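I have been asked to look over a protein record a colleague put together. What it holds is a sequence and that sequence's fold in token form. Please read both lines and tell me whether the tokens look consistent with the sequence. I do not need a full report, just your reasoning and any doubts. This is what I was given:
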Amino acid sequence: MGFMASALKFLPIFLMGLLTLGTYWLVQVNTPSLEIAKEKRHVADYIMDGIVVTTLGPQGDAIYRVIGQQLIHYEDDASSEIYQPIARRFHPNKPPITVRSDKGYLNGDMTVLDMVGSANLTRPAQAATATQAGSARLLMSSNKFTILMNDDIVKTNLPVILEQGLSIMSSQEGAVFDNVQQKLTMIGQVKGRIESENKGRTK
């Protein structure tokens, strides 16, 4: 009887312990972990108007400068949307190229810029020098251009039209412009005409 009396004496404490453990277990089951709670979503964390984004080379010189009417930055991958973007490539020994479009998508590490909607690339006319022939103004149009900033390449796999002087060419499969080599490659079946600036005739 003494043992039973002692056991009954501590029964309320034992029941309170069980209730506390049960409550703790329910809280843990129904509370998201810290990792889940901290998971970032693809939502805008800030918006800026009238932006200028400049990428710099190893010596601190401007390589690309991107301006736009508005930039929307996303917290999960640090990517950005840019409205009415204009991207210009600066190079001390090469003519500048300018790419424009309706909208731009810049990745988080600022190495890839997709220019989408009424996109065009322009390079100004170049006068002849002692070592290099002159060239007419270049205009390349497509619905999308991808700028690989580190590689200094602009490319598209969509239909593209190239105009330079009196010449005009098109391809349904895209083109690649290598600014380092100053070389333009049309992909797939190319249609159009190539005309001499001096003679004004078809080659």
In short: The first strand starts at residue 44 and ends at 56. The longest helix spans residues 2-30. Residues 41 and 192 are 47 Å apart (CA to CA).
